[in-house]
Design goal:
Elements lengths: L16 H22 L4 H32 L4 H29 L4 H7 L1 H4 L2 H10 L9 H9 L2 H13 L2 E4 L2 E4 H6 L6 H15 L3 H21 L5 H9 L3 H28 L24 H12 L4 H12 L3 E2 L11 E5 L4 E5 L6 H19 L12 H4 L1 H16 L3 H36 L6 H16 L12 H4 L13 H20 L3 H10 L6 H6 L8 H24 L1
Helix pairs in contact: 1-2, 1-3, 2-3, 3-6, 3-7, 8-11, 13-19, 13-25, 14-15, 14-16, 16-18, 18-19, 18-22, 19-20, 19-22, 19-25, 22-25
Length: 584
Amino acid sequence: MKNTWDLSFLYKGFEDEAFAADLARWPEMIDEQKALLDADLPVLTKLEKLVDSMEALSVLSGRVGSFVGMTLATEAGHPVAQQYSDKLSLIRNRSRLVGSGITRFVGSIGNLEELIAQSEKLQAVAFALRDMQESAKHTIPADIEPWLLEMSLSGGSAFSQLRGKLESNQTVEFRGQSLPLAAVRGMAYDGDPAVRRDAYEAEIASYRKIELPMSYCLNAVKMEARTMAKAKGYPTVLDMTLASSRMDRETLEAMIGAIREYLPHFRRYLKAKARYLGHENGLPFYDLFAPVGKASKAYTIEDAREVLLREMGKFTPEMAKFIDNAFEQRWIDVYPREGKRGGAFCSGMHAYDRSLVLTNYQGSFSDISTLAHELGHAWHNRCLAGLPTLMIHTPMPLAETASIFNETMLSHQVLANATEAEQFTLLEASLMESTQTCVDILSRYLFETEVIDTRADHAMTVDELKDCMLRAQDATYGDGLDKDVRHPYMWACKSHYYSSGLNFYNFPYAFGELFGKGVFAQYLKEGDAFVPKYCQLLRSCGSGTIADVAASVGIDVRSADFWRASLEVIKGEIDRFCDLCSKA
């Protein structure tokens, strides 16, 4: 089994004539779209033609952009890919300008509903058109938009790319070896406590080499976010993010309020794990991901494949076939290596009905859970297959539904047949993930909120950023973490803070964790009858607001009780883990 992904379904390489042809065709299609927008045509005719042009442009731009982006994700220093990435930034800016023009055009249509009723083509993308009409209220004024977008190339976008370069090329001196940062971070899961501690200390030391440029990158990205929110007429960056997420503050506040209520239980888990590992003052950060119990083991990627096929296939045989095909067709780039970005992600190729998954697999059960998570995204993409491109844009919070559902299902299935010793290990792995997506995510939300607010006054220094991060960790982890051994550089570690145009890339994970568990609870109640409902839920994620999509399976996301019910599931796992911990 080959463990790097295969991009040949897109192009054979950068020398492929098809790549050159598509790259040349992309700007031409933008010009044609602009000419169509300016043409003197009946409104219905123009709107239908624009829908067709947006579909075609999305397919071509997705193909070219994915080939360049996926190449750089695994080869950060690829000189040809980087040159093309710079070119694509300019092309995308041109496309954004025309896209804004289309949004303004849709916003100007006073009888949009009448036109939708007259056209099957428009009915197929009705929600997207209505969403564009609402978004038109927040488009940047046409006379300044070109300048703002062009400035972003040397602003937020450039600093975001710089941060990616810094991380991908960062090496860490660990026990006499120079290793990729991602590989050293992966040692946090190692069974040897000395390895975990030494890796943590080496990682922290390594950030000192890049802390200053990282701080400049973060300050630049967040200042641009403030500027763009003002230009679009939003009161705050958070309001802008919620609007793009199709989520309201009532939902966000209900969720965060419930998480705050349950922080003492998460801290109880952390302190129990700390005592088990021999720590008296809470868990040191380097042991957050430490495996516990005697049942912990290393899994080869072949083992992981077997576990996923067996356990996920219990949900539906189609899921097992889907996962097997992902391995067989080389959708997955498995192992860490120099020049490859850290973490994990899934990128959908809608026109090809396939997805590409990047992981940095090192053999823990958590790594298998990560694979299940990313393949959940891929399954979501499969459920969207055949829809118009305008109808597949899932808001960030709902985008985590299938991934968390998969993680929860994997844990549930494995625990069902586990011995008490195995339960201890598996429960801890599950709680480790839940703590990250609730407690750590809340700390990131608090941190980003303060950075954005402070940025109105001044650029934060490295020391200010470190202090802010430690205070955010104190507010969330509390005495669950050793106050002297936390992670002041989590702001440099997490790429999500640096995504230009994508802010508060944190609370969607908490939403996904708890919403996914709530949806899984529905599955446990209804059994096989829920499978088609679940797949339809995923298919509808681009077709409504978060509240409406959730309501389709009987969930009220504006109610704190829903979030409490999901957190009660985690609390039950904490109770069981603490009980087993006392016996170990």
